[in-house]
Amino acid sequence: MDIQLLPLHWVYLVFIGFILAMLIKRRDTTMICVVGIFALGLMATETLSGSISGVFNSFIYATKELMGTIMIISIIVAMSRVLIRTGINETMVAPLTRFMRTPSMAFWGIGIIMMVTSWFFWPSPGVALIGAVLLPVAVRVGLPALGAAMAMNLFGHGIALSGDYIIQGAPKLTADAAGLPVTAVMEASVPLVIVMGLVTTITAFWMMSRDMKNGTWRDGLVAGGSAAAGIASGDNEAEKIVLAPGVKRWLAVIIPLLFALDVVAMFVLNLQGGDATALVGGTAVFILILVTLLAHRNQGLEQTTSYLIEGFVFGFKVFGPVIPIAAFFYLGDAAFGELFGKVLPESSHGIVNDLGVALAGVVPLNGAVGAVTLTVIGAITGLDGSGFSGISLAGSVAHLFGSAIGSDGATLTALGQIAAIWVGGGTLIPWALIPAAAICGVSPFELARRNLLPVLIGLTVTTVVAMFLI
After folding, report:
1. Which of 65, 84, 116, 458 is most buried, by CB atoms within 10 Å?
2. Is the pLDDT of residue 8 over 90?
């Protein structure tokens, strides 16, 4: 099929190159994206007012597309705040500590608990929810604090966040940019997440055990020892709220049970994507209200609002840098026509799709080249330490390569998502490692150094597996 490439296509491609260059240099890409939207708008509308308005409207478009994701994360964080301050989180995980009798059991126990918790609460609140309770137990049975930080980090910010199967924030971003259903990306990611998770965690555990046996292990402790859970969550002891022990125990049973019922309902009612996210979010809202009313009594109405504000501040702080970037990459698909009118040729299926088809005609592309490219691009986008700000780029490039090699791009999209989040979501970039490092009292740089080789080995093996799945 002949594709007519307009100057618009080339300008879009040039700006993708600029964004990649800025990411490699660890510079912020927001301004580049805004200039890119303005330039595309100016070419499409040929009016200054239309291009300037297009920048704002593209932000609105991206915010509308991301609002469900921002909302669910904000609500989950709001709920986690009240669970931490009432100590319900400690009661919830306390029974699990009896299974941690050896360093090995502590490493895998902390990791699995962190992974499950992160599926429902997201990793950053998850660190605060369980770190302060499980860390002393792990250290007491011989697991170094740095080993505990690795477990929380690799299982939470790595495995749980890269799949994000319950809250579905990550697959929503990449799927939208790739022009695919969220469920397609999630299904394609399952084998890749499993391979990446197994290879990385087993390698990290083996290296830790080897170094401890050989006496070459360095714990990387920082002055002052491990932090209290409040450091990661913004709480302190004065803000702790006293609940009756019986009430706390009942809530510690009811809350996990409600989320477990949500999971059952997802399967029974075949809820996916936004419907599944809405179920979890609604459950979290009612849990927040119930616990806040029980904890604050007469002040419950006002405190509910206060917790929601905390959650929204966190949500928009995380997604503030994402909105302009996502706005640019949404222009690669349906958003362009909606914002700037029908400017592309009749045969066009969107800027990115056109570039992919044209690329296939001049460059011999295959699944292996596409897989390696997506892993590299995903890793580069993660260099800013966000993990989320660049996965729209990964989805967009996966769309381009998928069109070029005649694939739907779901596996490539999932691979780019996994690479971006493992690198930038909190396993390799020191400033993204601070929550886990602070809760365990270890250096984020030492934690990043420990994670580096296992994550690189995991990405290599996962990329090879992806080549056979494309």
Report:
1. 458
2. no
- Determine the residue type at 180: L
Please state the length of the chain.
470
- Residue ranges in 3-122 assigned as alpha helix (H): 7-24, 30-45, 48-86, 88-93, 103-121
DSSP state of 221: B
Residue 190 is assigned to a structural domain of this protein: yes
Q: Write out the two tokens for 429.
A: 């970039």
Picking from 441, 95, 88, the residue whose alpha carbon sits closest to that of residue 240 is 88
Q: Is residue 2 part of a domain?
A: no
Residue 67 domain-assigned? yes
In a domain, 313, yes or no: yes
How far is Cα 116 from Cα 97, in angstroms, rounded to an integer? 15
With bands split at pLDDT 50, 70 and 90, how would you rate the model's confidence at 60? very high
Q: Quick one: pLDDT band at residue 454, thresholds 50, 70, 90?
A: very high
Smallest CA-to-CA distance from 171 within 159, 154, 183 is with 183
> What is the 3-class SS of 373-433, one letter each residue?
HHHHHHHHHHHHCCCCCCHHHHHHHHHHHHHHHCCCCHHHHHHHHHHHHHHHCCCCCHHHC
- Measured CA to CA, the distance from residue 440 to residue 131 in angstroms comes to 8
